[in-house]
Design a protein that fits this description.
By secondary structure, the chain is mainly α. Among the domains are: about 90 residues; about 90 residues, no CATH class; about 35 residues, no CATH class. About 70% of the residues lie in helices and about 5% in strands. Strands 2-1-3 form a 3-stranded antiparallel sheet. A two-stranded antiparallel ribbon has the order 4-5. The longest helix is centred in the C-terminal third of the chain and has 34 residues. About 40% of the residues are buried.
Length: about 500
């Protein structure tokens, strides 16, 4: 019965999310009906509401510019879950949980209050500060996760299944979009009547001056294509396929790693591929050191993914793009910075624009940190930045983010904020570190996820997205659940000793 309720809720949430991305029409309103039913379900069972939460993330833009019916419904669902958890907690005699959560809330509110004061002092508009703060508020979902999971390990697996569903939705949608809309097909540019026209290879053969082949990037049209869940999915799939003993779970893990790998390759995003490969290699080293009986298994999985990735690259004709992008990366040296800052456009074109713009961005953030080193400039602080559009044109805009979590936190929070956020992001790595040789699979998965998020967050502003912070909330929720379980176990042991 539990299997039916949990799996049915996850399936309903996934179907609802798919309907909601249609944006209008009958299917969209079918999705609205679905999310309304899930909200009602969460009122009766916050646990089922929590399982529905993650697949529903698929229907939300990574950084919503406006608040529509989907965003409001998602916020209402989270609110219903949180209230249900508070009611459950108030009815229990678990004073330790109230103490821990009350302290966590006070610390978080104090940090936000200090940052708000700093932001106002530095002239940041309140609306910009709120927009900057909202993504991080999702971390407080850890309270709900901790109470709902408790000491039930089966719920950890179900929560993992809910997150895995979201990962499959993301990767599957990107792959589907890439091929369904023929983004994978190359095109040529031809000047006709003083206008640039896109043509297929067959049509371009008639023009000797045709420029190509070229390919569009799916990241320009699908916002979820740079989400941290893609590299995390690659790594977690490898970890799950390696450590799991049941063949069905091994197959699910391998399929997750494979689909996410294809999605990553489709994006042409170097940092995404490199971060997932780096942590996969770290995990492989861990297996070779502490799990000798699994050495052959992890090598087979890695080899299978490697062969599949290479075949996919050459089958879709994207090998030249990947080779070119990697070559651009290796050609960048410290001395090239002078080329970017030069006023000579010829010299500036020698440097990869994506990489060079990041370097300029880091310098801006560093200078802003140096001007306010202790408490930073406050969330929502903006700076001028330039990037490439889908038409390969450069656009300048005032933005409130930096594509690197270290520089971003230093910019908005100073040293104090950096210390606090480092504990939030990296702290889970050190929980029960002495048990790493023989720990349960879900703790190894948590460490792998944290490492991947930390590395990938150094290249993209994914740390400001809802998915990133909700994933952090799950990790901390499981940690707090374990702390509370250990505390109850310790108290029970003391009572037994006293009784004797």
């Amino acid at each position: 019965m539990i299997f039916n309720k949990n799996s049915a809720t996850i399936a309903l949430a996934a179907l609802t999310a798919i309907c909601l991305i249609q944006e209008h029409g009958f299917v969209f309103y079918l999705g609205v009906a679905g999310i309304c039913s899930l909200i009602i379900l969460a009122a009766f069972s916050p646990w089922l509401g929590m399982l529905a939460l993650f697949p529903l993330l698929f229907s939300l833009p990574p950084a919503p510019a406006t608040i529509g019916i989907t965003e409001l419904s998602f916020a209402l669902l989270m609110g219903v879950i949180f209230v249900g958890v508070l009611v459950k907690l108030s009815r229990s005699a678990n004073k330790a949980a109230l103490k821990y959560f009350g302290l966590a809330l006070l610390v978080g509110l104090f940090v936000l209050a200090v940052n708000l004061f700093v932001a106002v002092k530095n002239g940041v508009p309140l609306v910009d500060w709120v927009r900057g703060a909202i993504p991080f508020l999702f971390i407080y979902n850890f309270l709900s996760v901790a109470i709902l999971v408790g000491n039930d390990e089966s719920r950890i697996r179900w929560l993992g299944g809910s997150i895995a569903t979201l990962i499959f939705l993301f990767s599957g949608y990107i792959i589907f979009y890439y091929f369904y809309y023929d983004i994978w097909l190359p095109y040529w540019l031809v000047m006709v009547d003083d206008k640039v026209v896109r043509m297929s290879e067959t049509a371009a053969l008639q023009y000797s001056e045709a420029l190509g082949p070229m390919r569009d990037r799916v990241t320009m049209v699908v916002a979820q294509a740079t989400d941290a869940l893609l590299p995390v999915g690659v790594v977690l799939g490898v970890v799950l396929a390696t450590l799991a003993r049941r063949k069905s779970v091994v197959a699910i893990g391998f399929l997750m790693a494979l689909t996410c790998l294809f999605a990553v390759l489709i994006t042409f995003t170097r940092s995404m591929l490199m971060s997932s490969l780096l942590i996969a290699f770290v995990f492989t080293a861990f297996i070779f050191m502490f799990r000798k009986e699994m050495r052959l298994k992890v090598v087979k999985i890695g080899a299978a993914l490697g062969v599949a990735g290479v075949v996919f690259i050459f089958a879709t004709g994207m090998q030249d793009i990947w080779i070119g992008r990697m070559n651009q990366l290796t050609e960048i040296k410290t001395g090239n910075l002078k080329e970017f800052y030069s006023k000579d456009p010829v010299l500036k074109e020698k440097l990869d624009f994506n990489v060079s713009s990041r370097l300029v961005e880091y310098k801006i953030a560093w200078n802003m940190f140096v001007s306010h080193p202790v408490l930073g400039n406050g969330l929502g602080i903006k700076h001028e930045m330039q990037w490439e559009t889908v038409e390969n044109e450069r656009q300048t805009k005032w933005v409130a983010y930096v594509h690197n979590w270290v520089f971003y936190i230093l910019m908005v929070g100073g040293i104090a904020g950096f210390l606090v956020y480092s504990v939030v992001l990296i702290g889970p790595l050190f929980f029960r570190l002495s048990w790493v040789k023989s720990e349960s699979t879900h703790w190894t998965i948590i460490r792998a996820a944290v490492l991947t998020m930390t590395v990938y967050g150094a290249f993209f502003a994914v740390f400001r997205l809802i998915t990133f912070n909700l994933l952090i909330s799950v990790i901390w929720g499981l940690i707090f659940a374990q702390i509370l379980a250990d505390r109850r176990k310790s108290q029970s042991s003391i009572k037994e000793e006293v009784a004797l």
